[in-house]
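Chain and conformation:
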Amino acid sequence: MQLDGIQIDDDLEWADEFEWSPRQAATSRSITGTLIVEPSAALDKGRPITLTAANDRAWHDRATVEALRAKTDQTTPMTLELWDGRTMAVGWRWEDTPLDATELWPGAGYFVITLRLRTV
């Protein structure tokens, strides 16, 4: 996989791939308790992409983590190439922590990462 030209491990999993719907509706209740459903709207952007892995796989070295960290300030769309050949334009989810990197153990030089992106 690659994020804007940075090689990332193919063992990262898209954790929330099926937790998103391309349609959204607003609901409320009337004063009598009746459910009011506003017409659904099609969503074409904003799908969350959380790439993560367990501690036993998908380790990244410090240079890769630093390259990804430098990208977290980028406001222009990036290209994400997934392990299965899909390509999409993405941006960071700044309302969440866009990048988590936890060193496996002090001085190891390898990190477990989580990337929080969205389609743009």
Observations:
- The chain has a mean pLDDT of 92.
- The first strand starts at residue 2 and ends at 3.
